[in-house]
Amino acid sequence: MEKVTKSICSLASCLVRYLSLILAGILLICGYLFTCYSEDMGSQLVLTKWDFLPASLLGLGVWFFIAWLLYHWTMQKPKKRQKLLLLAVMCWYTLCGLLLVLFGRTCPAADAASVYQIAEALAGGDTGVIHPTASYLSYYPQQVGLVAYEEILIRLWNLLPIDMPAYHAMKCANILWVCLLIYSQYKAVCLLFRRDSAGTAYLLLMFCNLPLVMYTSFLYGEVPSFAAFSAGLYHLLKFLEKTDGQDSSAFPLPSFLCSLFFFTVSVFLRKNTLILMIAVFLAVFLEALRRRRPVLLGSAVCYLLAGCLVLPAVTTYYEHRADNKLSSGVTALSYLAMGMQESSRGNGWYNGFNFNTYSESGMNSELANEISREAISERMAYFRQHPLEAFSFYSGKFLSQWADGTYASRQATLATFGGRSAFFQSLYEGSYSRYYIGFCNFTQNALYLGAFLFCLVAFRGKSTFPCPDLVLYLCMIGVIGGFLFHMLWEANSRYILPYGLLLLPYAAYGTGLVSEFLEKARPRKG
Asked: pLDDT band at residue 248, thresholds of 50, 70 and 90?
């Protein structure tokens, strides 16, 4: 039995290493060759252009020089100066977030507006929005957790004598979530690699992450959900570390409960985080096999069960409260069918097929699935007959999501409740938008290169890591899962933001390695 479990873990580790290196290599090549972006904020059509490689390489040199300078400065007093950097980055996000609240003037729009309106109604005592056919939740019941979160914030906001919409408070809450994200992920980087160079590089990467700055004013589930996942990951690493020490018979209950709580909250706020929870389950499950620790196996099951049960539990609560039922919502097959279709914005992006199919079928899931199967069969037959067009379609779908360094941050935060300042207006639709797109593309290239360097070093076994392979690659497993999911599902570069954030620890390690090399190669006086 021991040989079998070792073989399973070894095979899984080898597979993850290969897949990670291949995916990181593809991202690196495509990131340096192409840039995807939107110019017209009306149509939001995703354009693709070739990058000027010499400029990209020059930018790369500048990036590593800055990373080395920062590393050289922090190495004089590593602990003290990294704490200062961490504080500076968190202050940077707080300042920018508050400026966006004051002058960006973003308000909820589209799905975010529907969720906010339902939460507002529930906070006011109107449970009529919980309905099997006449509600936004009738189509998208997976948003029920986000509704509950916003209802709580609205109720708290209404206790204050302030005559302003509650979504301003939600933006401020997002700033706090981002600070939690930065702190938790930084601590996770320290536990994963135990290298000062990686910690310093992470803080530099995070400081330059302008899309995340913009997303502090996005009133949806991405930011709080990923922040909660990052906190859960940090406590999971502490939990695994404490169960692998000399006193490994002890069970670190606080670390386990904290990780379980934050992981559950992350799915509660955004259902797609289940992709990351599957990665957590696989990593902890295989680690349980490797160590032969039943307690870890039980922990893995707890993580998965909590992630799968939290939203049904919230749905049950609202149905009981409203004495009404919610329908099962738009079907998964209709999303898959839409992911194979063209759209006015990009290949596989939202074109209304999923919503219209469910609506026109009288909200009958079986009929909607039948229509979706026919659409999938037709599209597959067309792709078989035109393989070059199939390649063009899916390569365009891939690039529109993974080669957009802005992660659709301008489109997502475009809606406004009043006139923006001249600076922000130009950033969204004027001349400054070109600089924003260019800088985001540059930082995404640095992200992909750093992540590739990590995968290359880890694949070749040139360095030792304090964590076991599958724990070390946990975030990368999530990225692989996200890549496969969104190649099949509805496309949107906004959906890739969490996976770009998951790559940050690996990019920090790769960037830190270059900083160490430059420090060693630096001419010494005397």
From this structure: low
